[in-house]
Amino acid sequence: MITRxxxxxxxxxxxxxxxxxxxxxxxxxxxxxxxxxxxxxLKSCSARRVPLLKPVHVQAxxxxxxxxxxxxxxxxxxxxxxxxxxxxxxxxNSTRRVWRTKNAELHPxxxxxxxxxxxxxxxxxxxxxxxxxxxLIRVKERMNGAMYREILSENLLPSARALKMKRGWVFQHxxxxxxxxxxxxxxxxxxxxxxxxWPSQSPDLNPIENLWRELKVxxxxxxxxxxxxxxxxxxxxxxKIPATVCENLVKTYRKRLTSVIANKxxxxxx
Length: 270
Prior knowledge:
Layout: H1 2-8, H2 14-23, H3 30-39, E1 43-46, E2 48-51, H4 55-68, H5 73-77, E3 79-88, E4 97-100, E5 111-114, E6 121-129, E7 132-139, H6 145-162, E8 170-172, H7 177-180, H8 182-190, E9 194-195, H9 208-222, H10 227-240, H11 243-251, H12 253-262
Helix pairs in contact: 4-12, 9-10
């Protein structure tokens, strides 16, 4: 009954199970419940936070993965990947525990859907390609479409030149409303930038997410004590990320696509 309950609802707590069993006439302690579940290969883990996927997102992700599965590696090497990220000065997001088996951390039942919001932090825009990191800049105000176009205007082409991108390089950004606004699309078209068609809610398909993780680890190790130091350290550590790290992220891109297909369109490890 314990195993059946947590398989149906991994967010069930040990306290819930103690109460359920008591109502059924059985007195069981919390350690006994933990041991029972452990024997079934289930352990209590923090629920992963992942974007909320609707059926339309799942289908778009599968379509993207299938359409690009046979693209040659050189095509991905000619992409400039971009994104924004928030870097916290201190603090951790709250966690929620779930009972799950070893490799099931990304099953929808075991994750917490997230939406984006702010706190005591700085917002960054950055880009990279297989050749190395591109520009990284701090976004000091709440970003709107006009500001986003200004960021691209001042940083995208200089990044492409510094990274020695081949003719016909492709720009990747996600489907944030600022990115997909008519004025932004028009600006990109006038500049003759090729844009990679992107499935919404797909951070696992953007290798820059791994680069953000790398940056955050490096920054945390240096323990910045204020926002000014946080910004300076972010810039320094971004510049230090080796080109080989970027190259490897892009080299293994096909694996991301096969994972999405194997996971039936749901979020995969990245």
